[in-house]
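To whoever is on call:

I kicked off a structure prediction for a single chain this morning and the downstream step that reads the tokens threw a length-mismatch warning. I double-checked the sequence; it's 500 residues and nothing unusual in it as far as I can see. Pasting both halves so you can look.
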Amino acid sequence: MPLPLVPLPAHVIERPNPDVRIDAATTISGDADTAVLLQSLLEQRTGIRVPIGSVGTVDLRLDDTAAPESYRLDVGNGGIRLSGDAAGLSYGVHTLIQLVQGDADGWRVPSVEIADEPRFAYRGVMLDVARHFFDVTTVRAFIDRAASLKYNHLHLHLSDDQGWRLELHSRPELTARASQTAAGGAAGGFYTQEQYGEIVAYAASRHMTVVPEFDMPGHTHAVTLAYPEITAQPVLSDHIRDVAAAYGGGLPEHGTPYTGMAVGFSSLRTRDAAATTFVRDVFTEVATLTPGPYLHFGGDEALGTDPADFADFVAEVSHEIAALGKTPIAWHEAGAAPGLAPGTIGQYWNFIMPTVGSDERARAFVANGGRLVLSPADAIYLDMKPTADARLGLTWANGPTSVERAYRWEPSDVIAGITDADIFGVEAPLWTETVTDLADIDALVFPRIAAAAEAAWSPATGTLPDRTWDSFRARVGGLGALWTSAGIRFPASEEIVWTT
């Protein structure tokens, strides 16, 4: 049985040395921030509050010469030694916690030697807080769940047709008029600037960077409620009418809150000078609130925007963001625009086998000096139903997405001509049309979030003996007790070999 390590480390050597016990005599020493994290996680897992001192059974050493986000873990000879840069130490702690096992005599850690570092620099999860709003406590819990699997970016989808979720002093009507509704008629909400700062700071404490997204020129019906003069009338298609008939919510009407699930009908008036000013105000203020280097401007499913107007608009927005000293990110449709700011990052959300044109748009970002974040919808969109009879989720991305399908894909194989050097990373999005609270998040996210984490962190499929589906389903099954102790209400997928 392989050790329950997810994502799979780059190098693992199991040794015949005696296990190291975790008991009342255990102590922690070394880097103060990492020691506090380990103390908390050990208590959560074992019930033992291990003291922090100057000399420890577990020694945590900051190594400024280590490769970014890398760590080395050595368990044996009565002690545990962990070293790495600041982020690597944190990731190494989560690896160590996965190794903690219970037996008749208490708690133990098997003797191993691990040397580990990530495959991709960007390892992201996305939380859609626009379709349904989640308070700061829930977002913090989501951050903790993601950090435990070595994710390092939190993409917050802060605006959509159903609501606007961040207070902006330059545009107060957005939260005054466009924040109180959500999908399905649920209550809305928004983050004050202080609350947003709290999320950013908490993410940073877990070595995660917040990537805020304000989607445009489509997905902007909520803006209609605050600034109707800069938004166009909804463009209604037969598809939108079919979605409304199937899921409810009615058809969108200009100036009226929208709580349905259809997409592609809304648009800013992209050639209106007032809309340009609006965009500049939004991103200028968000840039001052966001210490991270990225601003995401959407650019997807703008079916209500003339293609030529769309191309000019997304190019202009990318340059506005670049002028603020930030790197623009956009969904892959924006690759159709020839004038994007050099270095703009594209986020690919089409399928593992691209539909016509989506791969060409994705490659355009690379040709423009940027790179790609891969989020193939039929593999790692976490809001897809895991099984046909699941209570939550949707099925539009090639039907229900099993854990096995979430695992069995290779980032460098998705788009012809794209190699690891062109891939910035992997991101697993959670859209929330059917998700209302943390229990719903857990029910859809786990265990598929672990499969996406392995695609983002671990060496390529087949390069290691345990980088296989059969190994993964056993390894992730060994995390059930750990996840339970962390309060994660994960579904016991029948695809996984669960152990206690």
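Update from on-call: the warning came from a stale cache, not from the record. Cleared it. Sanity check on the structure: The first helix runs from residue 32 to 46.
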